[in-house]
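Can't paste images in this forum, so I'm doing it all in text. The chain is below; anyone willing to post the predicted structure tokens underneath?
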Amino acid sequence: MALKYNKLLYGLLIFSICLSTLTGCPGSGDRISPEEEAKISMVGGNICFWVPNTEHYRLSDLSISPREIPPNKRKYIFGADFKIIDGKLCVPPERWSLPEKGQYIARYFLTPISFNEPFRKVTTGFEISNGEVKAISLTNEEVVR
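Text version of the structure:
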């Protein structure tokens, strides 16, 4: 009886070691992190997104798409020429022309300058009407909370 019990324990131990070796252990990178929402405003013809505590980050990429566009159809703007100044990321009209009206979702990714900071995702919904921009609420399907 004891021999059978030892074989079972030995088998479970080998199985556990093999399983964790093949699949890996869950870590912080395996979790979905919530997206931040930014305030939005117009500053001199530029659309600006306000996110606090960005002094140690740089923009990785940016997407501004109509609200109904599916994720695989989004167009991303990659560029190191965007600067985050005083927590404000402004997109000039030559990089994204301001449409007359419509609802849009802006998504951008902030990468840390140093390796001890987390990667950040920012998503903001906004509406353009009569040359003005205002924030709109996003659904749970549009943003990870």
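The helical segments are 2-23. The CA atoms of residues 103 and 127 lie 4 Å apart.
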